[in-house]
Design brief:
Chain lengths: 110, 76
Amino acid sequence: MSEDIFKTIQGMIDAHPVMLFMKGEKNAPQCGFSARVVQILTHLDVPFDTCNVLSNPELRQGIKDFSQWPTIPQLYVKGEFIGGCDIVTDMYQNGELEALLAEKGITKKA
Amino acid sequence: MAMSAQEIERTIRSAIPDAQITVTDLAGDGDHYACEVVSEQFRGLPRVRQHKMVYDAFGGRMGTELHALSVQTRTP
């Protein structure tokens, strides 16, 4: 694994306050777990950016190594790794996700 | 290659011996599972760390032999 892919990932996390690494595109997810996280973030009406890990095999493995987390999707908020689909779903259902986003200063789209 | 529900339970138990584990085969295809893991060891840990303890039990088998495992963790 090259250092470059870690730099690329870090760059995306730094540049985008809510960054989702997923399978497929935001408007065309290619996995049910990725689709669910997109749906939750869309429902919360906050701005978020996505990166399709299927577009690049090095990135697909790189994000797993970077986060030390074996599955995709992976959600980062303000540089902090929040978790995958199960955690995001749980946090959404008990209101923790909305609280976390508010705490991190992520506001709803105007 | 798929894993059986029993093997999933055994694998999690090897890493978290005190755990109460419920494994559900979601699609009936031996390839998509959900597990609920209840352990005192999770107490005080952020959820990312709790799930990581479960994932770590599988080492490199996650995403290869085991296609999809939905994880829920809680303390007793």
